[in-house]
Amino acid sequence: VDQQQFYVQEIKSLLKQKNAKLIAHYYTDPEIQALAEATGGCISDSLEMARFGRDCDADTLIIAGVKFMGETAKILSPEKTVLMPTLEATCSLDIGCPEDKFAAFCDAHPDHTVVVYANTSAAVKARADWVVTSSIALEIVEHLDSLGEKIIWAPDRHLGAYIAKKTGADMLMWQGECIVHDEFSAKALLDMKHLYPDAAILVHPESPASVVALADAVGSTTQLIKAAQTLPNSHFIVATDRGIFYKMQQAAPGKILLEAPTAGNGATCKSCAHCPWMAMNGLQAIYQSLTDNSGHEIKVDEALRQRALVPLDRMLAFSA
Ligand code: 13P
Ligand code: SF4
């Protein structure tokens, strides 16, 4: 505990000294979110993290999340130093969509508009016409569909299937998935619902269609927090990373929040409702990134950055 307090105090003073802001995703551990909150930083979903990083007047951004979030921050704010607690924190969607294979997929369908999820590398974004996050994907695809455009969607097949079903858009899907959300099980969820018949089920759309089908509310992390705040139920079964409970409980005090079950158990499932890469964002790693940038700084090649900026700016302008 003393060691934790040491890091908290040191990080607070280093953030001030360096005119730095800590920007944390809802899936990071509670002590990281608490620190972002206490220091005037931001805790949010990937869309708002991008916007906050771009608009705040800090010299340095510490992105507690996964690598694509750091890259997005750098693409939007090339003049800022962008640090991450660890550059090893990646995402199964990013890993599953390598730039060369994705470029070949796009080249094979030149008449399609390329829409990529934010959970991708800068190089994949640079190949896209649009970047979307889960909080704005539905509206952007609806808009493109209304213009009669055919869409290449990458990389999350579950989110893509959900959007295609909602909008009826013509979407060619890349077959990627999030190892955390892919573990949620409809069968186990139904069993749990029998134990809590009055609970509302909240589901992130990176979950399989069979799980989404059982949801009372489907949405991005921010949208799920709003649902917990506004729905009248006393209990919620939440199918997303358990890191969200920190903010969801603040937003909905007195409500009982329950983790949705995964198919495996601790011994067999890969992630068990907590992203292993988000979990790498510890206090010690944040402290280290602030004391010595080397090995923590996000750098994006300038020509690549300019290309990736175009579809990112398009999303931000659309959502403004
Ligand atoms: P949000 O855009 O909803 O924050 O999701 C990002 C993410 O990585 C979900 O797994
Ligand atoms: Fe990627 Fe899933 Fe982790 Fe989000 S929770 S960063 S989508 S692996």
UniProtKB/TrEMBL annotation:
Pathway(s) the chain acts in: Cofactor biosynthesis; NAD(+) biosynthesis; quinolinate from iminoaspartate: step 1/1
GO cellular component: cytosol
Keywords annotated in UniProt: 4Fe-4S, Cytoplasm, Iron, Iron-sulfur, Metal-binding, Pyridine nucleotide biosynthesis, Transferase
Record: residues binding [4Fe-4S] cluster: 91, 178, 275
Cofactor note: Binds 1 [4Fe-4S] cluster per subunit.
Cofactor: [4Fe-4S] cluster
Coiled coil: none
Documented EC number(s): 2.5.1.72
Positions of iminosuccinate binding: 25, 46, 117-119, 134, 204-206, 221
Location of the protein in the cell: Cytoplasm
Role of this protein: Catalyzes the condensation of iminoaspartate with dihydroxyacetone phosphate to form quinolinate.
PANTHER family, per the entry: QUINOLINATE SYNTHASE, CHLOROPLASTIC, QUINOLINATE SYNTHETASE A
Protein's name in the database: Quinolinate synthase
Organism this protein belongs to: Paraglaciecola hydrolytica
Gene name of the record: nadA
